[in-house]
Amino acid sequence: MTSPFRHTEPVPPESATGRTAEVYAQLARDFGIDHPPTFVVLSADPELLAATWALMRESLIAGAGSRTGKELAAFGVSRANRCPFCVDAHTVLLHATGDHALAERLARGELPRDGGHARVLAWGEATRVPGSPGVASLPFPAGHAPAYLGTVLSFHFINRIVSSLLTENLLPGNVQRFRVVRSLVGRSVSAAVRRDVAPGAAAAFLDEPGTGPSWAAGTTVGPAYAALRTAASAGAALLAEEDRALVREVVEAWDGTHPPLGFPGLPGRADRPGARLALLAALAPYRINGEDVAAWKQRPYTDHCLVRLIAYGAFAAVDRIERELPLRLREEIG
Question: What pTM did the predictor assign?
Answer without folding.
Answer: 0.96
